[in-house]
Amino acid sequence: MGKSYNNISMAVIRRLPKYHRYLKELLDKEVYRISSKELSVMMGFTASQIRQDLNNFGGFGQQGYGYNVEELYGEIKKILGLNNTYGTVIIGAGNLGQAIANYANFQKYGFNLKALFDVNPKMVGIKISDIPVYDVDELQEFTAKNNIEIGVICTPKEFAQDIADKLVKSGVSSIWNFAPVDLDVPEDIIMENVHLSDSLFILSYLLSNNNEEA
Amino acid sequence: MGKSYNNISMAVIRRLPKYHRYLKELLDKEVYRISSKELSVMMGFTASQIRQDLNNFGGFGQQGYGYNVEELYGEIKKILGLNNTYGTVIIGAGNLGQAIANYANFQKYGFNLKALFDVNPKMVGIKISDIPVYDVDELQEFTAKNNIEIGVICTPKEFAQDIADKLVKSGVSSIWNFAPVDLDVPEDIIMENVHLSDSLFILSYLLSNNNEEA
């Protein structure tokens, strides 16, 4: 199968989606070749940073030619694991859960959304973007039976730990958590948090320091 | 007014919301005093990291006593600028815009949501959590007149740059961007991005490397 990249620092890994995003944009504009210098101006990284980052994966540029955008995009997709498919469920079918279910990139990149779950009897039984909403009581059984790898938690924070426990018991390998709380899970579970308020508070920090400067 | 903290690294700043979150949780559990050791176990930072982080702001602990949770929480709130209020608008009243409008922390921490804007005539005129939805054509005038500081972009990515331009022209100081695209804005505009797919792609990277290890 593919290569494994276990000794690459998370700092490098966390920059890869940005490469993915910019290369996709270039392809959409039918740009097929780009120098590390041009890429660096677009992305706000130095050209040497870009060469270093990509060298971690074998390096894809050619001296005097630059990068083949299509090839580089394909490689980065592969490195990011976006050629695989992942059985996915969303818990919490409120606005946020629905926003994520409708999120265009979700299905396109292999995140195969199989069901949403909610406690609200008005939601149970309906479909969102053609995906059924089930009662949260059915979560464990469904997840175990359907080979689900990713559980997306979009519940209020009071319920998030309980949901995480159920997901772990039913065998998911990873949790994408939107509840504003850090969850306790076994070490082998991959946990990726999106703490919206953390990002908002950084904004207010920058705003309030900015104002004081002025 | 308050102190300004311009020479503190963004790495430290980006950890502050996590302190805020954990201290808030301690207060909710009526824990009023904590050692840096206990805090470090909870948060997964080393005790020395915690002392270093907090020393940037003058240090709040007392040898042999630890931290007064309420005091420390209050200080971190102040440092994060959460004692101020910020006039805020959301552009894009779809699921994501609504999720953010309903987000409990929004109003509580001084983000004073004044209006949502949308292109959809079915949305214009309704209220979401008591906040009016206006036609996006009214964005510039409303924003300029109402002393809006934060524009939250929840539109599809095709419209995001145009909205950002309008926000800048009408005088906002900062943009909280949820559209999956990096926006061009003048240097003095504070830009905080929440690229959901970046986070999802990190998850798939970790998942696919994890699978190959096994």
Architecture overview:
The structure is a homodimer of 214-residue chains. The first copy, chain A, is of the alpha/beta class. Chain A starts with 9 loop residues before the first helix and ends with a helix. In chain A, helix 8 (157-169) links the parallel strand 7 and strand 8. Chain A has two domains: 10-79, Winged helix-like DNA-binding domain superfamily/Winged helix DNA-binding domain (Arc Repressor Mutant, subunit A, Orthogonal Bundle); 86-198, NAD(P)-binding Rossmann-like Domain (Rossmann fold), CATH 3.40.50.720. In chain A, the strands form two sheets. Chain A has a seven-stranded mixed beta sheet with strand order 5-6-4-3-7-8-9. In chain A, strands 1-2 form a two-stranded antiparallel sheet. The first copy, chain A, has helices spanning 10-28, 36-43, 47-55, 69-79, 95-102, 104-108, 139-145, 157-169, 196-213, and strands at residues 33-34, 67-68, 86-91, 111-118, 127-128, 131-135, 150-153, 174-177, 190-193. Chain A is globular and about 60 Å long. Chain A is built from nine helices and nine strands. At the A-B interface, helix 1, helix 5 and helix 9 of A face helix 1, helix 5 and helix 9 of B.
Major sheet strand order of chain A:
5-6-4-3-7-8-9
Largest interface: A-B, 63 and 63 residues
CATH fold label of the largest domain in chain A: Rossmann fold
Total domain count of chain A: 2
What is the helical fraction of chain A, as a range of percent?
A: 40-55%
| Total strands of chain A | 9
Number of separate helices of chain A: 9
The CATH architecture of the largest domain in chain A can be named as 3-Layer(aba) Sandwich
